[in-house]
Amino acid sequence: MNWKQLMCGVEYKVLACGGEADITSIEYDSRKLVPGSAFVAVKGTAFDGHDFVEQAAGRGAVMAVVEHELPSYPENMTVLCVESTLTAMPMMAINFYDKPSDDMTMVGVTGTKGKTTTTTLIHRIMMAAGHKAGLIGTIENKIGEETFPAQYTTPQAFDLEKLLFRMKNEGVDAVTMEVSSHALALHRVDGMKFDVALFTNLSLDHLDFHHTMEAYLEAKMELFHRARLGLTNLDSPEGRKVLEAGYCRMLGYAIDEESADYRAMNVSMTIHGLEYDLRMPDGKSFHIQYPFPGRFNVYNTLAASAVCLLLGISPEVIVEELGRRDRLVRGRFQTVHGPNELAAIVDYAHAPDALVNVLTTIDEFKTKRVITIVGCGGDRDRTKRPVMAKVAGEYSDYVILTSDNPRTEDPYAILAEMEPGIRETGTPYEVIENRRQAIRHAVQIAEPGDVILIAGKGHEDYQIIGREKTHFDDVEEVEKAFREVHA
Which CATH number fits domain 99-322: 3.40.50.1110, 2.70.70.10, 3.40.1190.10, 3.40.50.300? Predict the structure, then answer.
């Protein structure tokens, strides 16, 4: 492919013409360039790709895409200027990989909470129905049963199209992917079409990037411009706004809203799981049992079931797959049983609404105290710090404030910003900055029948302190504490 074919559909100005060499790869990271590469100069928070064009030429790149004129141009390199490299990248990637998503059924899931569990459930049901399905998500990517780690919730445009190209070549016929608000705002899925787009909910998160909840919702709604069919949560005020926007043909799902096309009826719940009747648009219903409790899991399973029904999968397959007890989404309400009737729950809840959902679910089956361990990430939205602590205090009997991923912030400063929230509640608490020590202390003070909630990191198996990323897994830590403290 030459540079003219690569840039089909992209407006550009030629700043330097270095010939018609074949493009062998596309990279926005100059360290990954090889002879024949096209280099896209992206302005990041720490580095500006425009400063590396000369280096790119030295590594064998035959083309560069930039946003402004440069002081000089390398010999034998074609340099093109576009209005935005971020908006040019998706079309370049689609051209380079020959539109792989066009040959697969595409499902996109967006929202603050529930994306990972819902996409995982859809992938499982698709596999059970006989599809070779792909999954693109926060925790992992999957091709059929093959799993490999995910770097971003939604990869950069080049990485995404490369992954979809690989999926297509390996026989995948249906892909479910989490589509983050960042990915939509940063144009990572521009040019893609989705057969079904799903909206789960919206709650306080990512305001450091979007600044307002209105802008956050607008970013989410961009997914529906790219969809043939949309499905939205009608119990959510924001979900109703998605419906009213009418960007594509829309259907709704709900527990409470009677007009929903897909509705969960007769919901019941115990510590061992939940069950309900799923009413379909034709008025018929079928019974679902799911081995994990929580109202949020009613929404997750209902949304996943509705998507799969829309794609022609039978209720029988859905019922059988959701009822399996050997399934677990790591770090999503994951229960770790200890000695002496102790139990810990590890969950990714890192926003106020998510923490409320988890704690109210625990309240439905607790027999004694709830001890909550919670922190807030550094270099992220500071406004939610006292709110997170207040939620923990309102729904717990005892709270331990600790570090999450402090990153480049002072961890004690983060904790100091959380404390006013919990002081409002009057709930007893203590501050233990070291997360390992906080988990161990919770296990030490827990009594038979107590439930320990370890919130905020969930599936993450690392902790970022400063710029150093080290191994840290909440599940491993509480299992170790159970063994050592109650040996």
Answer: 3.40.1190.10
